[in-house]
Request: fold
Amino acid sequence: MQALLRYPLSVLYYVLFFGTLCIFHPIQWLCLKGFGYDAHKASVSFLNFFIVQNLKILGTRIRFDIEQPLPEGIPLIFVSNHQSTYDIPPMIWHFRKQHPKFISKSSLGKGIPSVSFNLKYGGSVLIDRNKRKQSLEAIETFGKNLEEKKWSAVVFPEGTRSRDGKCKKFHRGGLLSLMKNMPSAQIVPIAIGNSWKFGQQGYFPLPLGVHLKFDVGAPLPIPAEEDHETFIYQLQKNLHQKVEKLQEGML
Reply:
């Protein structure tokens, strides 16, 4: 019975999902052009609130376990594994007070209602992964901007989504650049579990009853620059261990 329900519920979800994107696209434009950053940021937060609510149609449950309260008044660098597009809306909504911004591939900067507009005008950075030098320069500027404005970066160092939930090795260039250009920031590791299940069948039909888990570690100060490589290696190791435990249902 559940297998049959997946099809109509997936269709209903996508109708609501794309409808939400289309409704919020002009709202974002109006907020940004008419009222500035704060209004636009609020519209993006509520966009993602409704996306998260739409997931409940599929019986999705979302849980954030936060080891300790996040510091205020400083930029943060959220470092996470990446399993699906459904990693992102809960993070934008849950961490809205921290002004999360993303490093995204340039192709996402056009053609997607609401999403492309926010990536282009909301403070994130779009990069072409095939142009390494230009990408690192863009990330450097991005980091300096976040440091100045006390906003936060969300980084997926694996570089691409894991379609089976297994962790991938970190690509360190972007994270190293942010650590160098955001010296007052703290690193917040986030282990995500079960999000990969949404893409098991190419995102249609979507699975029912997924328990999406976010394990948010304690903020870590950025070490001296000569220790950055060792710090990232240990960060990767600890994060991957947490992800494995989440997948096994041990956390």
